[in-house]
From TrEMBL:
One of its GO terms (molecular function) is oxidoreductase activity, acting on the CH-OH group of donors, NAD or NADP as acceptor. It holds the Pfam family 3HCDH. Keywords: Oxidoreductase. This is 3-hydroxyacyl-CoA dehydrogenase.
Length: 499
């Protein structure tokens, strides 16, 4: 069933929006004969013209030869009627995310194509099995989920429904490769792989904001500078649009019967309700109007820097940092100097209580990630402001930016990365895809610096487990319950990818 032969493959695309146009462009660039159809008058023709303009612009920029551009454009055809798709080998649907509308389309397509034609949906979250329900030939229906912008995003998720044959899956995988994408076969589950796995990064950032621990600018700066993400979670949500990411988050949360690991916050919903949708409306978590400037994430140096500190617990990393700061490390607590700690998963309050330290003089530093550019400092309620500022001054004096936050178990980075890793482990536990494919999908689909299981392995599964265990204990929230996949591999001391 289906055919990816270079000479014979004909691809139909229903939906001439951004996704449909992008799919058409990469397919035509691969030498595939493409037929674009859209119910809206002139939409398919406009799509073809827009693709042609983009390609010719690349010629002007010296990124494409004129022959390559015109050869690609010649592969793009406008279908005036849905019946014009009858001879296609594969048809990809890229219309509105509405189950009833998609079902109606697939029934219409089934009435005009041959039994050998593969019908694929570019849905980002709707179950493939639900789309295919009611069709006579459900075995030839599958998911082929691309990512926007299609010409730049290499990932494509291939999703078999309950009746999809292996031959159809193999054909869709081969088609994805021919289009220059990296296919990952994913189980038919709400949100598939990327839209499910991507919830952790943003919803944990929202939880930290909800607790008034840090501002969006502070959280974004930490995730960029300390963890290597290209965009912070709030920058990312403003870019995709609150009208996109909140409904997806709510859908995934509800689809998993209210799993607390997937929930959002009231403020996320509030932005949607008040029309503060991000860049597209000029205001979301940030302002984007003329002259608007992003709030600073950096603490400011004021006064003298600390000269002496006492390390609450032995720590080679903390000792090395203190020496870099040029401060003297006391052998015993003198009762007046700043106390430094580097807790794992604990907040400053819990750390002070456990160690019997004076919380008024204790400054906790997150040393779990890269601190060459930025370091996160937090203190417990009632901390002496002068002590806090003296430590911040010393940190700034070392050439680092400092993000000073309120008390939080796991700081910022520990919390967010642990949740990303934990959700990745849970997806592996549920068998949504092979562990290595989960990592590949998250890197390619979301531009993560590492996949979730790679994060767990590079930090250390036991380290991640310790952070989650402390978070669950201190908050009493099952949002932080560790995945059994993670617990077992951390306990056995084996790589997190081990099946």
């Amino acid at each position: 069933m289906g055919n990816t032969n270079e000479a014979r493959l004909t691809l139909g695309i229903v939906g001439a929006g951004a996704m449909g146009s992008g799919i058409a462009q990469v397919a035509a660039a691969a030498g595939i004969n493409v037929h674009i159809f859209d119910m809206r008058a002139d939409a398919a023709a406009n799509s073809r013209n827009d693709v042609a303009k983009r390609l010719r612009k690349r010629v002007d920029e010296g990124k494409l030869t004129a022959d390559e551009a015109e050869t690609t454009i010649a592969c793009l055809n406008v279908a005036d009627r849905i019946e014009d798709l009858a001879a296609c080998d594969v048809i990809v649907e890229a219309i509105v995310e509405n189950l009833d509308v998609k079902r109606e389309l697939f029934k219409a397509l089934e009435g005009i194509v041959s039994e050998e034609t593969i019908l694929a949906s570019n849905t980002s979250s709707l179950p493939i099995g639900a789309i295919a329900a009611g069709l006579k030939h459900r075995q030839r229906v599958g998911g082929l989920h691309f990512f926007n912008p299609v010409p730049l995003m290499r990932l494509v998720e291939v999703i078999p429904g309950p009746d999809t044959t292996d031959a159809v899956v193999e054909t869709l995988v081969a088609l994805g490769k021919r289009l220059g994408r990296d296919p990952v076969v994913v189980r038919d589950t709400p949100g598939f792989l990327v839209n499910l796995g991507g919830r952790a990064y943003t919803t944990e950032a929202l939880a930290i904001l909800h607790e008034n621990v840090a501002t969006p600018a502070q959280i974004d700066a930490v995730m960029r500078d300390c963890c290597g993400f290209r965009m912070g979670p709030f920058e990312l949500m403003d870019l995709t649009g609150i009208d996109v990411n909140f409904p997806v988050t709510r859908f995934v949360h509800e689809s998993f019967f209210g799993d607390p690991r997937l929930r959002s916050t009231p403020y996320h919903r509030y932005l949607l309700e008040t029309g503060q949708l991000g860049r597209k409306t000029g205001r979301g978590f940030y302002h984007y109007g003329e002259g608007a400037q992003k709030p600073s994430a950096d603490a400011v140096r004021m006064g003298a820097a600390a000269e002496k500190v006492f390390l609450v617990e032995p720590s080679d990393v903390l000792k090395t940092l203190a020496l870099e700061l040029g401060v003297s490390i006391l052998d015993t607590d003198d009762g007046v100097s700043p106390l430094l700690g580097a807790p794992l998963g604990e907040d400053t309050t819990a750390f002070a209580t456990r160690t019997g330290s004076d919380a008024r003089r204790l400054v906790a530093l997150d040393l779990s990630f890269d601190t060459s550019k930025r370091i996160t400092a937090m203190t417990a309620p009632g901390c002496d402001p002068a002590i806090r500022q003296a430590v911040i001054n010393a940190l700034i004096g070392s050439g680092r930016a400092v993000t000073a936050i309120a008390d939080s178990p796991g700081f910022i980075a520990q919390r967010i990365v642990a949740m990303v890793a934990n959700l990745g482990c849970e997806m592996a536990q549920a068998g949504l895809a092979a562990p290595r494919d989960i990592d590949k999908a998250m890197r390619l689909g979301l531009n993560y610096p590492q996949g979730p299981l790679e994060f767990a392995q590079s930090i250390g599964p036991r380290h991640v487990l310790a952070v989650l265990t402390a978070l669950q204990s201190l908050t009493g929230d099952d949002r932080y319950r560790p995945s059994q996949w993670l617990r077992r591999r951390a306990s056995l001391g084996i790589p997190v990818w081990t099946v």
